[in-house]
Amino acid sequence: MSLDSKSTAPAHPTPEHGRTSALGSLLKLRELPVVLALVVLVAVTAAINPLFLSEQGIKDLLLNATILMILAVGQTLVIITRNIDLSVGSILGLVAFSTGSLFVAAPNLPIVAVFVLGMLFGAVLGGLNGLLITIAKVPALVITLGTLYIFRGINNAWAGGTQYFAGDRPEAFGNLSVDTALGFPVITLIAVVVVAIVAVYMLGTRPGRDLYAIGSDPDAARLFGIPVTRRVLLAFVVNGLLAGLAGVLYASRFNSVGATTGSGLELDVVAAAVVGGVAIFGGSGTVVGAAIGALLLTTITSALTALRVDKFWQQAIVGILILAAVVIDRIASVRSARKLRIAEARNV
Amino acid sequence: MSDPSASPTAVQPEGHQPESGPPPKGRRMAATPGSTKTAAEAGRKPARSRTGKADTSTVLAVSKGRTGAARMLLGRDAIMIYVLLVVVLYASIVIPRFASPVTVGFLLLDVIPTLLIALPMTLVIISGEIDLSVASIAGLTSALMGVLWQGGMNIALVLVICVLAGLVAGAFNGVLIAYLGLPSLAVTIGTLALFRGLALVVIGDNAVANFPPGLTAFFTSKLGGTGIPTVMIGVVVLIIAFAVVLHFTPFGRGLFALGYSKEAATFVGIDVARSKFLLYLATGTVSALAGIYWTLRYSSARSDNASGLELAVIAAVLLGGVSIFGGKGSIPGVLAGVLLIGTINYALKLDRVSEVVLIIVTGSLLIISVVAPNIASAIRRARHSRQVRSAPLP
Questions:
Q1: pLDDT, tens only, B80-93
Q2: What is the ipTM of this complex?
Q3: Measured between CB atoms, does A128 come within 8 Å of chain B?
């Protein structure tokens, strides 16, 4: 929300905007609740079970969050444009399986090439979604629900009962999720770099800002001269690309990839974005928030295990968290709408 | 609904640059030899309407829609029903053993959960909202049912409590969405996790299977030799009830208005919040019924019962011609959509097509069903604008 008001602020230069202190703008950050929740969660868990913050504990936390983080970043781009992509789980599965079969077919392929191929494959699948949505003008929810089934079906037909295990892949590839650099697992570093790049892109470049404008009001964006079709397509391609990257990393992180890899992941991803403060109707939210949301969701699972809470409560708690995020988002938007109204009234 | 459909109209020429290239050529070619025809048209049109302004409005009205019997026989629902009939006929001829009571029985038994939940889902989507938590409510009911029955409660009481649980779950959604005004997509993603989580809390990873044999037998029993499951009687009653509510009551008409424009609906005097709340009560209750059915049909109460059903239901409803933006759709169309997916899946299974390919069919059907009308209307629009442009100025 804060980003959104920033982008529209120049149209109504209000004196109030200039006077907000650094602390005030920090308190208004949409990511603040989720960061606080994460800090409290980690602190409480660590106080009760010190092993939670051991070196291995932190490494596990980060490893678990990596894939969801990357997916949530891609999903955020799409949601900001007032669309949604439900097919990411299927894209991830398809790319993960193709990575597995690629290593079997061409064992000597450099790992970088595998990453590039996986991301390209994902981008093609995402682009397919984007083309269907932008050219046929059909709502994203419907198209990606359809491609969720189609991609999964292709994955099923291709894989059948085949599964590729970690032994089928070169050791260096699997080591990406074992080795650490600066205390971080390598694949987590990849995720952090992705988050940083996309965050800068969304904050500081014209296409990035355009995505927010499109999500706030597609018609106004079109009238303003923003190439809406191209930008939305871009969001879907990037989302597919990132889902592809997540798929390759999935193949590195987990022992087996098969026909059902990544199924059901799509709602987790949307949930992570929503928890991270991305408004489901577009126009506001940040990729950093979504990444932290993903970290929070996966951390809860580990924390509950560390706290010896009945594991069956995990999903219910995730549900409550999502609802809380939605309510907070609502309160924030109501408050900022009221503030805008008052500011405008004073201005006139 | 009106905005997104209106905006493509405005940008269509720009977006379809490569496509709109050829038409002008074709138009010019058609115009030169057929100049007598355009003259005849020009002679006819002003005769029908005196002023030039009314002329365009009649053209618009013609392209807009049909009335009366033609509308019923050529509408989106009717097309779905034709497609269903063709598929059933084709399957009965081509696939051995398809046309038999056994088919009817298993097909319907398989399709009942989707069919049940699709009814309130149709109303919800027509009113411009969505409910992703339906399958989780069914799972929660199933888990509750298993635990209560295991605990030695009377089965009739168990069933009543389960339906009430569905009602409460629906009311929870309803309060958040209708009265607090939260976006339904986000809320029901939350309750999707919450209700499924509660199901896990209730029953853990146990499964309860020892339901009274009389009851489970009843749920798989057939009506005589027809192969129609006995439960279908109840399902048909529900179908009729929902169809009547949607198509023949002021409440139902109000839902269409709601889907088109909430503001307008409010001004017409529709209690928007109350209508939405009632819809979520209905989805909760019917999802509970589907959960009970699922439990007794497979005589197994587990926390993961019916998981993933929400997307299958929504796919079927959208295939049945309900617009995801709200304001458009009908119960007969949705019935055809649900049965179409069920029939194709069953026929392909009988034809030894591997089960994994089936979801490709479901997905493709869904995409074609939404893309095809858009392409058709784009073509119609292009033809219409060509007509308007080629009409000589008075």
A1: 888 889 988 888 88
A2: 0.77
A3: no
